[in-house]
């Protein structure tokens, strides 16, 4: 995040000076934005950067305990420098949050520079899983930096202390977060596909019940309940991969437009990165835990690879923007778009479907049979109608409040659901678009088509209440979707293992005795147990101190 911050907010001169140092690890940087008292509310940050025209320097200061920087990854032990976000004060006026490059530690002996207090914030969730990352705390006591270490692409402070705003939107200050959020979506697919690969392979090996005439028991993968829990997660791993690829394209496109001062797609980039980051990370965190349960007792062992994956993954729901806060950003943009519909302004990009408001508010889903749900046009329209109607309902309810802000506050739980519906529509749309493309490999397209339908119909089934409450579907059509879903699971089953093998993960990368490619699960589990440090001694360390006195007492009593 240090590098993208300098790239996005630094002038060419600043990039030339700092980036080569960072690339060669001659300096190590971190992104110091969040404070003890404020993370989500960036405008609420308290650290100050006051310009001193006498010396041509900024004075970086932490005025309160709550202004201590808190969480930056790499800050605790490794970083020599940070991009610090602070309130810029010049000529007695507070100009809000800006980025500054600040050296924290000596390049000679790594000791903190004068006026800098720093350290690690302590152990984190999951007994050490994420503790290889040194998340830090940082306080400044009037630390001076040269004026040219303010990141000056978006705004400048002159030698005399005049504040000059460039003609670019101030939201570009948040560009680093947009960049990382888009990469987190693709990473969600990676983490989810790892968990699903472990659970599918193990479910093909694990057998319980169902033996007839002394024959083999049933592979748990053949149980309908196992399939209905696991295959939607498999489909989600593919769905997030495709939407992640698309988001990466969108981000690249926006960046190219920004270079020629075209800011028209900035809002779209913000809404899509924020919303997709929120929906995919929440779904992935839940799915990793579901995969643990799908692997039964053995899933709870560290050697399954799932506990560590979960512990490392769950903070993704919080870092780079708390998921609820991000979805409320999407909801704000949805409400803005709905309010502009009456003025004739045509929504664009992923909001374009809202332009069909007249049709979608009244349309009746034409599905009559379970097979009808295989028609992507029906799926697409059902998701569009649900998302639009939820957004319009929210807008109408907000409109009845005494003022907009109050209405938004009161309706925020509904707004959250409307934002999720809009984002799920994007995921479904991008999956449908993907399977319409030329896909090489015999039968591959058909498999992806199945997964696309599983993702869409499972999402529909899970959120059926939304579809019914908005009148987008009838209860009968909801039941038909569920019927079709069951048939799709049966079609996915023969290829389930191949569909996870296709992720092409090595055993080393998976780090799971349950997810081994060769399926040799039981010998591996048995062998792994003997590696437990508790098994280094036959008689445990505490035996003489704690167990023996108890056992001897019992022995004495039994002899009486
Ligand atoms: C063996 C090992 C096993 C384990 C292995 C595990 C392997 C697992 C596999 C994968 C793991 C995944 C790994 C992923 C790796 C990724 C790296 C992650 C690193 C994490 C580091 C974390 C870093 C951080 O967290 S940095 C700090 C992040 N902080 C935040 O996100 C703060 C959130 N808050 C905000 O963004 C803002 O405060 C806000 C947007 C909520 C509100 O801002 P405000 O200024 O108050 O603005 P507001 O009034 O709401 O809006 C004003 C207008 O601005 C528009 N707008 C807002 N934001 C943006 C934007 N970003 N871009 C463009 N426009 C924006 C908004 O829409 C408003 O527009 P309007 O037109 O005026 O209405
Ligand atoms: C592992 C990890 C790594 C991190 N790395 C970095 C880093 O490198 N650099 C950095 O600067 N930061 C980093 N962070 C900090 C991270 O960005 C913040 O923790 C995150 O943005 C959430 O902010 P918060 O902690 O203030 O949560 P809060 O905003 O305090 O959230 C608490 C609760 O309040 C709710 N809430 C907050 N505001 C609203 C609202 N307006 N409406 C409704 N509900 C609301 C949230 O949904 C949540 O349930 C990291 C955090 C973690 C966990």
UniProtKB/TrEMBL annotation:
**Location of the protein in the cell:** Peroxisome
* Domain Acyl-coenzyme A oxidase N-terminal per the UniProt entry, residue ranges: 1-28
Please name the InterPro entries in this protein's record: ACOX_C_alpha1 (IPR055060), Acyl-CoA_ox_N (IPR029320), Acyl-CoA_Oxase/DH_mid-dom_sf (IPR046373), Acyl-CoA_oxidase (IPR012258), Acyl-CoA_oxidase_C (IPR002655), AcylCo_DH-like_C (IPR036250), AcylCoA_DH/ox_N_sf (IPR037069), AcylCoA_DH/oxidase_NM_dom_sf (IPR009100)
Q: Where is the Acyl-CoA oxidase C-alpha1 domain?
A: 174-335
**Residues at the active site:** 320
* Entry binding sites for FAD: 34, 73
SUPFAM superfamilies named among the record's database cross-references: Acyl-CoA dehydrogenase C-terminal domain-like, Acyl-CoA dehydrogenase NM domain-like
Question: Single GO cellular component annotation?
Answer: peroxisome
Pfam families, per the entry = ACOX, ACOX_C_alpha1, Acyl-CoA_ox_N
Q: Name one GO biological process term.
A: long-chain fatty acid metabolic process
> Which keywords does UniProt give here?
FAD, Fatty acid metabolism, Flavoprotein, Lipid metabolism, Oxidoreductase, Peroxisome
| Cofactor entry | FAD
Q: Which residues form the Acyl-CoA oxidase C-terminal domain?
A: 376-552
Which GO molecular-function terms appear in the entry? acyl-CoA oxidase activity; FAD binding; fatty acid binding
Checking PANTHER family in the record gives: ELECTRON TRANSPORT OXIDOREDUCTASE, PEROXISOMAL ACYL-COENZYME A OXIDASE 1
What's the family? Belongs to the acyl-CoA oxidase family.
Protein name, please?
A: Acyl-coenzyme A oxidase
**Organism expressing this protein natively:** Panicum virgatum (Blackwell switchgrass)
